[in-house]
Specification:
This protein is α+β, with helices and mostly antiparallel strands. The protein contains eleven helices and four strands, in the order E-H-H-H-H-H-H-H-H-H-E-E-H-H-E. The two termini are 16 Å apart.
Length: 286
């Protein structure tokens, strides 16, 4: 089975992914406003489980954060509904923030890089002139930040009205984290290493290099079919329509549609700027 992917579909897929990530929180907030905290809790449990399933169908795998979040929500949500006690679900952000704080702390002694470095370096295309000690300091800030949010959540839940806590959970934590993050990104942007731009390779070469880097394929064929689409939108500049056949161990045990999604996720930026359409045949080795 082959899948024809246009650039505008990739952009739509990115927006859909973002909406899916926010969907449990949106469902919880709407259910709370329309009904009450107990209906909102039940809706949140269902939404988290559905997010697990949908992401598995879209990408062929489960996200660790989705699994952890769903487990915490199901346990605390069940206690909330069975005991009719809202305090259990109010502990959910505190538990998740506490686990996140522990994960950032553990990354300072386990693994090659602290979590904050893996997270923030991905924002920049250029290398950052940051010492290992500075990265550890920034990581410590995030450890303290998530611990502070964990404490703040339970403080708000205990000392303020239920509606205030819901607004804090849905909006306050996100906005506060954004305010905490922005100065760090601005500071890091001044630490990038500027290098002279190298001549850009052709589109076909860039596509081939991206696929080889991402999937280490046993076989890879890239065919330029732009001449077959003369007069088609996006074909005027040449090297716009490609057909690829890629065989990689990365696709073993993954459904066909999920393989295609992995491929065009790997070349997302090229599809937005250089390549108009891509026909994909992605297979595991025999």
């Amino acid at each position: 089975m082959q899948l024809q992917v246009d650039a505008h579909r990739v952009g739509y897929d990115t927006r859909m992914s973002q909406l899916l990530e926010w969907s449990p929180l949106i469902v919880f907030f709407v259910a709370f406003k329309v009904l009450d905290i107990y209906w909102a809790t039940a809706a949140l449990m269902i939404a988290c489980l559905l997010l697990l399933v949908v992401n598995r169908m879209r990408t062929g795998k489960f996200k660790t954060m989705h699994i952890i979040t769903a487990a915490v929500v199901v346990v605390l949500g069940s206690a909330t509904l069975l005991l009719h006690d809202r305090r259990f679900i109010q502990w959910k952000p505190t538990v998740l923030m506490g686990l996140t704080s522990i994960a950032f702390l553990g990354s300072m002694v386990v693994g090659k890089q602290p979590l904050v470095r893996r997270m923030l370096e991905a924002v920049f295309n250029e290398p950052l002139k940051i010492s290992s000690r500075t990265w550890l300091f920034l990581n410590s800030l995030w450890v303290a930040w998530f611990a502070l949010l964990a404490v703040a959540n339970i403080y708000v839940a205990r000392h303020f009205a239920e509606s205030v806590w819901v607004n804090f959970k849905v909006f306050g934590i996100s906005v506060a984290t954004m305010i905490f993050l922005i100065p760090q990104v601005l500071w890091l942007s001044g630490k990038t290493t500027q290098t002279a731009p190298a001549p850009l390779p052709g589109r076909e070469q860039r596509l081939r290099e991206r696929l080889e880097s991402r999937f280490a394929p046993a076989q890879l064929t890239v065919e330029d079919e732009s001449h077959l689409h003369a007069g088609h939108a996006g074909a005027a500049g040449g090297q716009s329509h490609f057909r690829i056949r890629i065989v990689s161990e990365s696709f073993r045990g993954i459904p066909s549609v999920a393989r295609h999604r992995l491929v065009y996720a790997a070349v997302d930026d090229l599809l937005k700027t250089d390549i108009h359409a891509l026909a994909i045949e992605a297979l595991p080795p025999d």
